[in-house]
Amino acid sequence: MSLSLTEEQKRRIEENRQRALARRAERLAAKPQDMKQPNGGQVLAKTANQTCSNRLEGWQQQYVKQGNRSEFLHQNTHNPTGPIQGKPPSAEVQQPTVRPHGIPQRSNPAVGTSLDGHNSRSEPVGSMQNSSSPCFVGSDSHNKVQQTSSHPEFLQPSYPSGFNKVTAAMLSDSNTLEQTSSTEFMLSLNKNGIECVGNEESQCVNSADWESSCNSEMKRDSETKNGTNVSHFYGAKQALKPFAAGENVALTDGKAQVSSASSGGALSGTVLLKKVPNALKGKCMKHSEDRFRVEVGYNAELISLFKTLPSRNYDPVSKMWNFNLEDYNDLMQAVQCLPSVTLQPLEGMDAKDFPQASLPSSTMLLMCKNLQKPSAILRGRCVLVSRSRFEVDIGYHPDSIGAFKQISSRNYDMKTRKWSFLLEDYQRLSEALRSFPSLQVEPLPKAVVQTFASQFEKTSTDPVDVPEAELSRVDSKLVNSLMPFQREGVNFAVSREGRLLLADDMGLGKTIQAICIAAYYRKEWPLLVVAPSSVRFSWAEAIHRWLPSIDPDGISVIVTGKDNLSASLVNIISFDLLCKMDKQMIASFKVVIIDESHFLKNMKTARCKAAMPLLKAARRVILLSGTPAMSRPSELYTQITAVRPSFFPRYQDFGLRYCNAKKMPWGWDYSGSDNLNELKLLLEESLMIRRLKADVLSQLPAKQRKMVVVAMEGMNAKTRAALAASAKEMAKGYKNKQQEKEALLLFYNRTAEAKVRCAVEYIVDLLESGREKFLVFAHHKLVLDAVCEELKRKEVGYIRIDGSTPSAERQNLCQKFQFSEKCQVAVLSLTAANMGITLSAADLVVFAELFWNPGVLIQAEDRVHRIGQSSSVNIHYLVAKGTADDYLWPMIQEKMKVLGQAGLSETNFSQTTESTDFFYKDPKQKTIYDLFQRSFSKDGDEVDEALLLEACQEMEQESITLSVDSTDSTSPCKKRRIDDFFSKQ
Ligand SMILES: Nc1ncnc2c1ncn2[C@@H]1O[C@H](COP(=O)(O)OP(=O)(O)OP(=O)(O)O)[C@@H](O)[C@H]1O
Fold first, then answer.
1. Could you tell me the distance, in angstroms and rounded to a whole number, from the CA of residue 478 to the centre of ligand 1?
2. How far is the CA of 531 from the centre of ligand 1 (A)?
3. Are 600 and 636 contacting, i.e. CB atoms less than 8 angstroms apart?
4. Which domains, and CATH codes, for the chain?
5. Backbone φ, ψ for residue 870 (5° rounding)
6. Which residues contact 903 (CB under 8 A, 6 or more apart)?
7. What CA–CA distance (Å, rounded) separates 534 from 876?
8. Where is composition skewed (Polar residues) in this entry (predicted)?
9. Looking at the predicted structure, is the pLDDT value of residue 233 above 50?
10. How many whole angstroms from 898 Cα to the centroid of ligand 1?
11. Ligand 1, closest atom to CA 504?
12. pLDDT tens per residue across span 535-551
């Protein structure tokens, strides 16, 4: 007999069933462990799906925007309802194909495996199907993917029914759980999170991409008003993004139990990590009763991990970390997050002692969180190491090694442990490295790429020969005088289109080269020369000397702010006056020479501010400096920018690359240095030429004398008047020789007073230019005192030897100058220290004052130019116009000829020094010159003979001993006689 139910009964039963179901659903929500029940997953998944439905739109929009995954979009278009509306809810995971080498090929995110046992491949709709779908929450007994409930602390009651904290975490954090096969999840942690698996090209993102996408997603998330903090995964890119601080790691999903269909057994709670093939291997060893240590090589991630363990201790001797056994399990579990490390367990403790199946403890979560921190990103950089090769400077990163090995030009340096490649492989390698999101590799600077553009395209490593410049348009006198290396300098300049930094060592003739380069561009003149004020007139002289085709009237030295700049063909101006000039007028110059360009090293100075716009506007920029940077690369920045404004438009870029720039509480510190070899290569290729004296010594004379015409405009009115009066008197003539001599000495004395300021200024400029050791000779106490005072004021180490220095002390002073680095200047009396001492540690001698006896001068020069001197010696004679120098200088030259002929001077003075034909245009001057000649020839004969005799004796002495002679061989008696003669003031 069949028992048939009435309609009413059926309705009531159905109502009760519904109520029961509802109660059960409530119970399930309250008791997460109940989710193990078959229906639990469904309930949960349904809720999740509903919750996430709003998000789907955003995700789709993102893809539309990206133009990516069109196939997926197409499928969605065909089934607009998708599983959310049209199908029973299910949590689905993606099922990528497995690539031969074991790394799974990421499949179309639309294709996945449903956790409820439905293979979503057969279902075209995949709105929640990508690997990181928030719908990965449900399970049943068949699909072997279960949401465990053994960690109730992960539940968050305020979540909608069916949500636990794990689910929420998955949803709220765009984590990176990837299913690598239908049965296994692969959580491939890389340096900063998840390894890129599958098709790198389409899926890997660099952190910059990620950041921007993350920002937009965060924005979208914050706009969600569904009452939950859940967000969703946005597809492949999102799944692959690196971890960021504050996220829950995919390990959270370790709460999910993943079963392996292939193995047939469930691995409860396991998150299987794919270790890279050449993972770093280490082992745990017993350290003490309650501690263990880890013996392993360097791995940045591992160290980050170690640092999260409370009981950590680093032993600097063994360079190993050890821990309390209490932390053992946590460590071993967390190590599973690191694909690049494997650790052998402690002896006697099997894997079962720290079951992989156990869910992550809070410590482990903390550790994994720490792994997500940006510090876990492995940072490195590409650095140029030669004209044709670059190096990738990163720590150990197994994946990138694989990429390196794909490049045929690779080279591994065992010493530095760095890989280098030909520049032509740069692009390829950069692309490969970009695919590792855990890696941040700073590229080569734009300036390097620009400069070595040809090397990026070809394999040739030969430097391109600099073509010979066609110099027929330049005065032949100049061209014929160029030494071979100077000619090369000019060729370089022309090949760089007249924009360069000529950084030859001091005394190698930068002036002649600069004049030649400027003359090559003569059609673009007027020419502007900016120089320290102490050498402005020397520039006028040099231009007059080397370019005789220029009318001397066309060369003007600007001495006051009122002078008309640009009125002449050649304009010479000091840095200081440049600041006072009209900016528009300054900017009109197309050819500019900057002498001692390191004067511009500080961009905050007025001189730099005045010069930079001028240099940027000019077509040809010729910077001259023997010491472009004296202490740090930051000093080069303005000079580089002056020549190539496009190289480093931002100081910070330059600072970060080459100055090891650091952010300090007070601002940026650019005082360091970094990548200097690259900087050198860049500069030499693009804009700088530098030869050292040693490089071209064979082309240089043993001594190079230079006349430096010092500017006298700073002379005070009283001195000027006194000098003029003296000259006027002398022009009248004298009744007797005594009067003549007295007048001359007075004139000489006043000359010293007039020159002292310029001489000091010149010495200061030399120091500022980086001259490390040099001699300064002067005759008058006034000048010696002024020089010493200034050195003292500037805290420059010096020695002083004059008539008052006891003989015994001279030796010590000389030793000090010779061997102490701090002792930079030797201030010497022309008559008291011109012989018997050796100061060959210097290779420059400056004569602040002239002297009528060339024998004295040559002897003075030879304090440096003597045995022990390996360099070419530079001699600078400071000559002041309108003073006694006008007469002394030609007289000296004439006498020098005689000494040269007598073999007493190694070099012929007149051949190596510059022309002096600007003297004696006025007949009165001729009268005075005759007076000088007459007086000093007659009265000086005796003295000259005595000096020459002593010089000969000294030379004999030197040739016998061939050793350093630092004793004063002049007898005190003779010396006094000579001193008396010359020091009558
Ligand atoms: N080719 C040349 N022919 C003749 N004299 C030369 C030549 N080259 C350089 N000199 C002389 O050598 C001396 C040094 O030259 P210059 O002053 O140009 O050197 P520099 O490189 O500018 O040195 P610093 O950096 O000290 O200023 C000068 O007297 C100059 O006239």
1. 12
2. 15
3. no
4. 22-267 (no CATH), 280-375 (3.40.1170.30), 377-444 (3.40.1170.30), 477-698 (3.40.50.10810), 704-923 (3.40.50.300)
5. -105, -5
6. none
7. 12
8. 73-82, 960-972
9. no
10. 24
11. 21
12. 888 899 899 999 999 99
